[in-house]
Amino acid sequence: MTLVNNLRILILDDEKLVRDELCDFLSDPNFQIFKAGSPSEAFQIMDRSEIDIAIVDVNLPQMSGLDVLEKMKQDYSEIEVIMISGYSEMDSVIHSMRLGASDFFTKPFRLRDVENAIERTKKFVHLNKSLQEVKRNYSIISEEFNKALGYEIIGDSRHMKELINLIGKVAKAENTSVLITGESGTGKELVARAIHYLSNRKEKCFYAVNCSAIPESLFESEFFGHTKGAFTGAVDTKTGWFEAANKGTLFLDEIGDMQLNLQSKFLRVLEDRKIRKVGSNIEIPFDTRIIAATNQNLKELNITKGFRLDLYHRISSFIIHLEPLRNRREDIPLLLDYFVKYFNRIMGKNINEIDEAVIRRLLDYDFPGNVRELKNMVERAIIVCDRNKLRLSHFQLQELKGKNHTNYNLSEEIFDLELIERNCIKKALERCNNNKSKAADLLNITWQSLNRRIKKYKIEN
Questions:
Q1: Is the domain defined by 149-321 classed in CATH 3.40.50.300?
Q2: What span, in angstroms and rounded, lies between the C-alpha atoms of 413 and 391?
Q3: What pLDDT does residue 153 have?
Q4: I need a labelling partner for 41 at 20 to 30 A (CA). Which of 5, 201, 205, 233 fits?
Q5: Helix 332-347 vs helix 356-363: crossing angle, to nearest 10
Q6: Which CATH code fits 326-406?
C-alpha cells in the first residue's frame, strides 16, 4: 500500500466482521489502529488517545453516525472523518459531507475503496497538523513574549505566517546556527528571542551583543572573559559572553559590522566550541546556540573583503529573511491597533478610536524605519493626543516616501472626502498594477463598488 505513515486510525462500526476486516487490511507497523463497536466506546478512545482519522459507519447503536460526526467536529475538530454508507443512503452521505466529513466509501466495500479514501484524506491530516503547529507556535510565542517582554509578534500577512512557521521549526533544532537578515527595524532581535523561547534552551540565558559596538581592544575580554590581573585594570575575573550564555543563546546583532581581523578569532572559537580567558591557559568548553543578525548582504561584503565567507557559512546554517513593512502593508492596521493598545496600557490612556484618514495615510507611507518607526510614531501620537481619538494632526511625518506616492504633511488635515477617496483609489490601482480585483481587496470594498467609484471620479486605468 502507498498509505501515509504514522497515522492513528479509529474504526467505529457495530459489525465486528467489518471492524476486523478493516483492522487486518490496515495492519502495518506504521499504523496504530483503534476499534470501537459503539459511539460511547469511540468517545472514550478519543478522550484517551490522539486520533488522526476516524472511519465511522452511518448506522450505529446509541446515536447515528451523523450525530457522531457532528459531535466529533465540535469536540475533536482535528480529526478527519471518513463515513461508511450503504448504497441506499446517499442522502446521508451528502449530509455528512456538509457536516465536515472528508470522504466516504460504500458497503459492501472493496479494500481498494478503503485505501483510496484514506489516501485522499491524508492531505487533510497533514494540512490540519501544519495549521495546528502554526497556531500552537503563534500562541506560545505570544504568551512567552507577553510574559517576558510585554509585546508580541504581530501580523496576518502571508510572510508573517511563514515566518512563525519557520521560527517554530528551527527552534526545535536547538544546535543549528541561525542568520536573520532584514532592514533595520524589522524585528530581528524579536525573532531571535522567539527562537530561544520556543527551544529547550528557554530556561537558560539569552544574551544579546551589538557587534558594531565592540572595540578591537576589548573583543577577547568581552567574548571570552579574562582572569584577575590579566592586564592593567583587570581587578577581577570576568565571565565572557560565550560562558555567560552557556546552555542558552548568544545573539550577535549587526554581525556584518564585526572587524575583519576579529572574524578569524571568532570563527576559530565557533569551530572548536572552546574558549580561553585572557590571561589563562585553560580551555573552557561551551554549549551555546549562535543566532546572528544583519541588515547587510554578507555575500556582497565578502566580495569587497568585508566579511569572511567561511564565517558566513558557519553562522548561516538556517537563514530567515524579514520583509520590510512596505512589502506587507496589510499588517500595518494590525500593528497600529496593537501599538495603540500597548501605549494606552503603558501611559494609562483610553484612546479607543482611530480616524480612517490615519490608516489610509499610513498605508501610503514606505516606512524606511519599518516596524520600529511605526511604533515610535504611535508612541508620540499617543503622548500628544488629549482625547480618545487619534487624528492625522497627532502624527509627525514630513513626507510620504514611495515610488508612486504624493508627498504629504501629516500635520495638515484634509477634509475633502471625495478628494481623499479619489486619491486612495488611484494609489490602490497603481499599487496593484491596475488589477481591479486586487485593488478592491486592498481597499476592503467589492469589485462592483470600486468600478462605480472609478466611473464616478472618471479615473483612467
A1: yes
A2: 8
A3: 74
A4: 5
A5: 120
A6: 1.10.8.60
Query: What Å distances lie between residue 395 and 365, 411, 427, CA to CA?
Result: 12, 7, 21
- Rounded Cα–Cα distance for residues 90 and 329 (Å): 47
What is the average pLDDT value for the chain, to the nearest integer? 82
How many Cβ atoms sit within 10 Å of the Cβ of residue 332?
21
Instruction: Evaluate whether 7-128 and 149-321 have a shared fold.
Output: yes
Backbone φ and ψ for 121, nearest 5 degrees, come out as -80, -25
pLDDT of residue 96: 79
Considering only CA atoms, which of 29, 33, 14 is closest in space to residue 114?
33
Q: Which three cell numbers stand for residue 72?
A: 466529533
Bond before 108 cis per omega within 30 degrees:
yes
Length of the chain: 461
Percentages helix, strand, coil for the chain, rounded to the nearest 5? 50, 15, 35
Class of domain 7-128 (CATH, top level):
alpha beta
95 three-state secondary structure: helix
Handedness of CA 6, 7, 8, 9 (dihedral sign): negative
Q: Given the C-alpha cell 467589492, which residue does it identify? A: 446
Give the C-alpha separation, 277 to 230, whole Å.
9
| 211-241 pLDDT, tens digit each | 888 888 888 888 888 888 777 777 788 888 8
Q: How far apart are CA 119 and CA 32, in angstroms?
A: 16
Task: Name which of 154, 188, 158, 147 is nearest 336 in CA terms.
Answer: 154
CA distance 363 to 447: 20
> Where do the structural domains in the chain lie, given as residue ranges?
7-128, 149-321, 326-406, 415-461
List, in order, residues 6 or more apart from 248 with CB less than 8 Å away. 196, 201, 204, 205, 206, 207, 288, 289
Rounded to two decimals, the pTM is 0.59
Helix/strand/coil for 55: strand
The number of CA neighbours under 13 Å toward the Cβ of 366 is: 14
Calculate helix-pair angle for 111-148, 158-172, nearest 10 degrees: 90
The Cα–Cα gap between 206 and 249 comes to 5
- pLDDT of the residue at 406: 42
Phi and psi based region of residue 150 (left: phi greater than 0; alpha: psi -120 to 50; beta: remaining):
left
Separation between Cα atoms, residue 461 and residue 454, nearest integer Å? 9
Let me know: does 323 contact 159? Beta carbons within 8 Å: yes
3-state secondary structure 328-384: CHHHHHHHHHHHHHHHHHHHCCCCCEECHHHHHHHHCCCCCCHHHHHHHHHHHHHHH
User: Domain 415-461 belongs to what topology?
Assistant: Arc Repressor Mutant, subunit A (1.10.10)
